[in-house]
Amino acid sequence: MEIRRRALSKPHRSLTPAGAFPAKSGSSTRVQASDALPIPIRHTNKLFSVLFMASMYYLMCRWREKIRTGAPLHALTLSDIPAIVGFIASLVYLISFFGIAYVQSFVSSHDDEDDFLLSSDQPAPCPLTCSKKSPLAAESLFGDDEEIVSAVVAGKIPSYVLETKLGDCRRAAGIRREAISRITGRGMEGLPLDGFDYSSILGQCCEMPVGYVQLPVGIAGPLLLNGKEYFVPMATTEGCLVASTNRGCKAIAASDGAVCVVLKDGMTRAPVVRFATAKRAAELKFFLEDPRNFETLEIVFNRSSRLAKLQGIKCSLAGKNPYMRFSCMTGDAMGMNMVSKGVQNVLDYLQNDFPDMDVISISGNFCSDKKPAAVNWIEGRGKSVVCEAIIKEETVRKVLKTTVSALVELNTLKNLAGSAVAGALGGFNAHASNIVTAIYIATGQDPAQNVESSHCITMMEAVNDNNDLHISVTMPSIEVGTVGGGTQLASQSACLNLLGVKGANLDSPGANSRLLATIVAGSVLAGELSLMSALAAGQLVKSHMKYNRSSKDISNALPPDS
């Protein structure tokens, strides 16, 4: 297969040798839709215009003659047939002529697809600029990197258009990085630039990149959960966290594993609207919560996606301002975009019956996203999960180095009473946020949703004649997905694959994301068990001094005047 490469009209010189396109020369050649015609388009237009007028004139004369003589209108002569064919052909051509711009873009898009078939020694071009044409892409940047950096520093070229105009995401990041260094007077030598596919984040994960942050990923496990073993990836810079969670996994596995159940699965979005009076706001509330209207609203909502399934709507008022909390299933996606599109469909529909409704915002904080909120704690958001295990007395003593009675007492005084004294909202646990965040970063979740996803109440109770420990974690709002966002990045995708939940589950949509939620809860259970044991045994400070402090002699690395 012949591979066509589009040439640049002027070569450039890269600031760094790695990752830059080799210099190319030559003129740009664009395929035109009219190239498919056998004669020039101006002659073709004249030919079909004359054919259209002549055939239409002939057919009108024949129609008038048949009416005058009383001949059947459907009767055709040999001369009528070519006239009809000519009329139809010319009409089709002239109508299609107005769609040449569309044909041009279609042909160009296929030409652009060939740009991805580059040799392995060249970095892949950015998909946004190579597969989609935008107005900004019409004017490409030419010149060497030094000239472009100077233009960015001078404010002549906005930094955010570099990817679009250069067509090379790696080169754009390098130019932006150098420009920022010159503007601030500070270097970024410790921030890696090479070794990352910048085209994979364009238009999806991060804007205006200048590099990437390295985070170590540790493995805790195996976590024995619902009869299966999982090795849990955790991205963190906190020493002792992975080791502690790993110890919790060991204690759970030694006690026949943990059991986890998903109680509810539904992402929420809550727009806020306004009426002139509270009476009208109440009428909307009654309309939304009337079961007779739900089927219609469900149909309107579900048009947003084949996976979107509206579950319910709850409406609260603040004076004349209704807050409508929509809950829906979103398959294996975390689902914020999906539910937002469904909500927009319903708002548009409601304007027919409530034309005086003023939509203030698609999100009115009654959702509630990335904020601690009682509504998530009570009603749930995302996946509501409960996980439990019975830890044998021998395991508590030998692996966790403490006693059942000490753990039960500590959990009551710390996680329950202590959190109540602090006025905690969803924080009736030791450190659920630690484990949730580490897994979220490793698997490409939204780290900011750690806020509500870490809502957790840890319960401990002595069972089996006070010999064994029953421990459980209840987490009402774990927000995870296995498709979309950061889950498609190579490193995060590899971590999802390790857990067996990469991508969408085609047989049972939503099964992968629900399994990931149970793994998060099971890992939190392991983390709670280990930390609480360390606290009960008085080992916390000793453990952190051992694992969370470097023993390396760094005096030689310090400057002389330090």
3D structure, described in words:
GO terms for molecular function: hydroxymethylglutaryl-CoA reductase (NADPH) activity. Keywords: Endoplasmic reticulum, Glycoprotein, Isoprene biosynthesis, Membrane, NADP, Oxidoreductase, Transmembrane, Transmembrane helix. InterPro entries: HMG_CoA_Rdtase (IPR002202), HMG_CoA_Rdtase_cat_sf (IPR023074), HMG_CoA_Rdtase_CS (IPR023076), HMG_CoA_Rdtase_eu_arc (IPR004554), HMG_CoA_Rdtase_N (IPR023282), HMG_CoA_Rdtase_NAD(P)-bd_sf (IPR009023), HMG_CoA_Rdtase_sub-bd_dom_sf (IPR009029). The protein is of the alpha+beta class. It folds into 4 domains: 51 residues, no CATH class; 56 residues, no CATH class; 212 residues, 3-hydroxy-3-methylglutaryl-coenzyme A Reductase, Chain A, domain 2 (Alpha-Beta Complex), CATH 3.90.770; 91 residues, 2-Layer Sandwich (Alpha-Beta Plaits). It has 19 helices and 11 strands. The strands form 3 sheets. Strands 5-6-3-8-11-10-9 form a 7-stranded mixed beta sheet. The protein has a two-stranded antiparallel sheet with strand order 1-2. A two-stranded antiparallel sheet has the order 4-7. It starts with 40 loop residues before the first helix and ends in a 15-residue tail after the last helix.
